Amino acid sequence: MNTTKHFTVLIDIFLAASLTLCVQAAYAGVAGHAQFVSGQVQITSASGKVRSLKKADAVNESDTLTTAKDGSAQIKMLDGGLVAVRPDSQLKFDSFVFTGEEDGNERSFFSLLRGGFRAITGLVGHKNKANYRITTAGATIGVRGTDHETFVVLPGSDMAAIAPVGTYNKVNVGETVMTTDKGTINILPNQMGFSSAVNQLPQLQPVNLNIFSVMPPPGNGGQATGAVLESAVQEQSTGIGNVVPNTTTLRPITEDVGPVGAPKVF
Hints:
With 266 residues, the chain is mostly beta strands. It has a single domain (32-257), classed as Jelly Rolls, CATH 2.60.120. It is built from 2 helices and 18 strands. The chain has an 18-stranded mixed beta sheet that branches. The longest helix has 28 residues, at 2-29.
């Protein structure tokens, strides 16, 4: 009798633990939902399953989002952030964990394989900066409460005919840091960082107008206006064959990032 009761208690504990893990896995697995999809956009899961992305569909941790030359998508992240993927791009949602608060375990990691996207950070990375990053073949990009854009030009691509191969990052609001094996630079609003390769020192360069547009200074006490945001989204169509919708719901997060130090070389 005692053995039976003991076995029953163990089963109950196991089932409760399993249910908890399933709930946590399901919650952590969803990174965000598509709030706008235009043209051909596909999601490839970690297992290799491919599906067309539609409005309101979930985008999960480890999913890779691919847009065709006529495609674009906006993903509303669970932490309140926003990701707007440009045409002819490929972005992987490497890891996303958010339990509703900044407890140090949250994270939002992306890999940009080609093309570009604009990101407005949510709660992940707002307090714990190291928990948000973007990785490309040529650099790693971190943020400090930021509205920014990242673009990767690959050898042999259409963009390679009008822009040097490498990783580009431009800040609209806030600040980013671009790091390679050779050093780190800080990037402020309307500045652009460029890295030709991970074994090269990143550099601040004039904004490449074949990829980005220069943003007017934000008004309303530091808040970007609707016209500024509209201009930024329209700028996404600068790439060859790119088409981007006229409407947007992007709202940047502003933050006093403090003084910026000189580039660190090592």
